[in-house]
Task: inverse folding
């Protein structure tokens, strides 16, 4: 066991390095991923160590990045694309949704596109517009894609390798707000969970908070505060947004009877709506209150000076917990 | 960098040869037998198109995108390719598919609505049609990048139309391919119409000129002259296979039929428009050349017609024999690995279907 403390960004870098070492068909491509190491330095030093044929600085065009990566996949490569920011993925939407996601189905299984599309996402970093968005449901709504998001350095290290190794395309959402959070990573350990399983990150008995990405630490903080007030909260980190591990959420909800779903994205038609509907179907008689959703408002992402109102914080989570427990 | 003010032409509409020192040399090996083979291809490809169009009119397939008028552009270019070259197409390249070796029996499954594709691209070196206009330009560029990294000296060909040149994906593909110096042949069939919109709405300048602006050689060719298309595409393919980077060909041709069988071209063009191009028909042109050079007789023409009829019969039989897919195949090939929600959905729908009695299910 070789446990090291590292940031989530460094864990992604280490995971990508492993993936490049493991399979010579893996290539990393995107804007500024080479010499600069990416604007968040996730690909730092990879081009120096693996060469510019494996870590490729592309021209500045997102559809071009994903579309050419798709072509490389047809040639037998396993590309890892970096989209520089969440708000810049939309020019690549057709390539992701109509080409990458559907090619296996369109060809009755003859062709596959094992791409990993990395996207730093979410707010909380005081950024200018188009740099703080949570586009996950555009992709979870698209059959053929898998969508995952790690919240810890340890998961970032293993999940990026699992995503790259998978024969299905994966939209890999990186919570940029947590890039610099540190945690223990065992770089020799095998993954302790399949890519599509959720993790109970804090067991509890009174209510369940389900979330993912940057809000996992927020939910854990809320659980600490609740504990001081005498409430035991269970916190689930979904990790995989598609497919979604309803079994783990259901098992927890059956025990606690109270479920709160938290997301940064606007609540309307968000992931929380799907979770609320499915869990209501599965646990109608065990629920002691309606499933509550806490998320961003139904507005475009606001200017940085207002984002603290938009993003769920521990108080808004605890407000929902109180409403649920009072029901 | 547009190589010629006039499109390259080696055979005039009346069948007379045009001598062009550069391009005639590129087809110097095309002897009587080769010319007759090209004619056979042109006739077969038109026959495939006629048969599939008829199948649509008879309600046996839902839609077809006719290629009539564009046979020479497709056959001439596809016959310039090597076996290990790789082809990405739009939805009208049935003639390219034929030349690549796609079985006509596999050409209609998509259009009949039984599957989204007809063949395994790996076996024939040609992808299934790209329906989202222009998307395949980027795929070809990425494929060529992969080939370059593999050290494979092949050409990757992207077929698209004049309308597609307005798509961002084609511009991005042109840009990426010159930036990476990869061997893509961009083969644009300028058939003068993007459904109802004429080419001048896409671009006030020749399309080849736009490509030249990206920094690649670009040549306009008479797309109804199969010999000229063969020559220019050979030049482009050689360029790509030699590692000299991308090459753009604009083949000037004309879509004599509708955009698809759902289209009504009488709403946007006149009979006179068609007459102007009818005299440039690609099949007539090669047949006149063969006649002038005494390379055809009745036996040959009868033989070609019989071969084309056989292909059409095979296509028709295969279409009519296509079984309706089993409902539960709905859920196949969405993912390559286990996906629990989809498995649940399939199981649930299987149970739902099983709940019907035979008579109910038959309704």
Result:
């Amino acid at each position: 066991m070789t446990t090291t403390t590292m940031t989530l960004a460094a864990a992604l870098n280490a995971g990508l390095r492993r993936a490049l070492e493991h399979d010579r068909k893996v290539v990393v491509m995107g804007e500024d991923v080479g010499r600069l190491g990416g604007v968040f330095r996730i690909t730092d030093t990879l081009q120096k160590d693996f060469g510019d044929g494996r870590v490729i600085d592309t021209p500045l065009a997102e559809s071009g990045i994903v579309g050419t990566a798709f072509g490389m996949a047809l040639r037998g490569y396993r590309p890892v694309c970096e989209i520089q920011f969440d708000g810049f993925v939309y020019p690549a939407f057709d390539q992701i949704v109509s080409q990458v996601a559907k090619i296996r189905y369109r060809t009755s299984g003859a062709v596959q596109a094992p791409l990993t599309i990395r996207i730093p996402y979410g707010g909380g970093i005081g950024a200018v517009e188009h740099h703080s968005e949570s586009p996950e449901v555009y992709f979870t709504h698209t059959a053929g894609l898998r969508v995952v998001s790690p919240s810890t350095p340890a998961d970032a290290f293993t999940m990026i390798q699992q995503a790259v190794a998978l024969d299905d395309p994966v939209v890999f959402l990186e919570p940029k707000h947590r890039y610099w959070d540190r945690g223990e990573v065992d770089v020799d350990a095998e993954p302790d969970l399949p890519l599509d399983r959720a993790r109970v990150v804090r067991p509890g008995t009174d209510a369940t908070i389900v979330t993912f990405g940057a809000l996992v630490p927020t939910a854990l903080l809320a659980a600490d505060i609740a504990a001081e007030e005498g409430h035991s909260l269970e916190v689930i980190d979904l990790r995989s947004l598609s497919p979604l591990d309803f079994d783990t959420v259901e098992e927890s909800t059956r025990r606690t009877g109270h479920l709160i779903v938290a997301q940064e994205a606007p609540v309307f038609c968000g992931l929380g709506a799907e979770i609320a509907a499915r869990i209501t179907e599965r646990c109608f008689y065990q629920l002691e209150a309606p499933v509550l959703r806490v998320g961003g408002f139904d507005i475009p992402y606001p200017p940085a000076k207002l984002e603290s109102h938009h993003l769920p914080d521990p108080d808004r989570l605890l407000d929902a917990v109180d409403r649920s427990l009072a029901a | 960098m547009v190589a010629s003010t006039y499109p390259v032409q080696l055979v005039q509409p009346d069948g007379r040869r045009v001598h062009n020192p550069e391009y005639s040399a590129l087809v110097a090996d095309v002897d009587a037998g080769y010319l007759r083979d090209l004619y056979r291809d042109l006739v077969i490809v038109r026959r495939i198109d006629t048969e599939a169009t008829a199948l649509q009119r008879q309600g046996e397939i839902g839609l077809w995108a006719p290629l009539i008028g564009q046979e020479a552009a497709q056959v001439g270019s596809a016959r310039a390719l090597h076996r290990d070259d790789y082809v990405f197409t739009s939805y009208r390249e049935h003639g390219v598919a034929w030349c690549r070796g796609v079985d006509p029996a596999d050409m209609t499954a998509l259009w009949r609505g039984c599957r989204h594709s007809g063949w395994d691209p790996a076996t024939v070196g040609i992808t299934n049609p790209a329906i989202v206009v222009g998307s395949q330009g980027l795929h070809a560029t990425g494929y060529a990048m992969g080939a370059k990294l593999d050290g494979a000296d092949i050409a990757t060909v992207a077929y698209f139309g004049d309308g597609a040149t307005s798509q961002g994906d084609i511009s991005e593909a042109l840009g990426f391919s010159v930036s990476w110096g990869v061997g893509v042949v961009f083969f644009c069939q300028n058939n003068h119409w993007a459904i109802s919109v004429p080419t001048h709405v896409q671009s006030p300048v020749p399309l080849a000129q736009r490509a030249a602006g990206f920094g690649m050689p670009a040549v306009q060719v008479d797309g109804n002259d199969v010999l000229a298309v063969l020559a220019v595409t050979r030049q482009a393919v050689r360029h790509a296979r030699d590692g000299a980077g991308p090459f753009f060909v604009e083949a000037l041709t004309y879509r004599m039929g509708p955009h698809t069988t759902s289209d009504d071209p009488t709403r946007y063009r006149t009979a006179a428009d068609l007459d102007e191009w009818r005299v440039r028909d690609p099949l007539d042109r090669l047949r006149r050349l063969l006649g002038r050079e005494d390379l055809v007789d009745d036996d040959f023409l009868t033989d070609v017609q019989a071969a084309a009829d056989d292909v059409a019969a095979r296509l028709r039989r295969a279409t009519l024999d296509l079984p309706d897919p089993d409902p539960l195949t709905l859920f196949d090939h969405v993912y390559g690995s286990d996906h629990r929600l989809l498995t649940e959905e399939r199981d649930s729908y299987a149970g739902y279907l099983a709940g019907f009695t035979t008579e109910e299910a038959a309704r």
About this structure: Chain B has two domains: 21-321, 327-362.
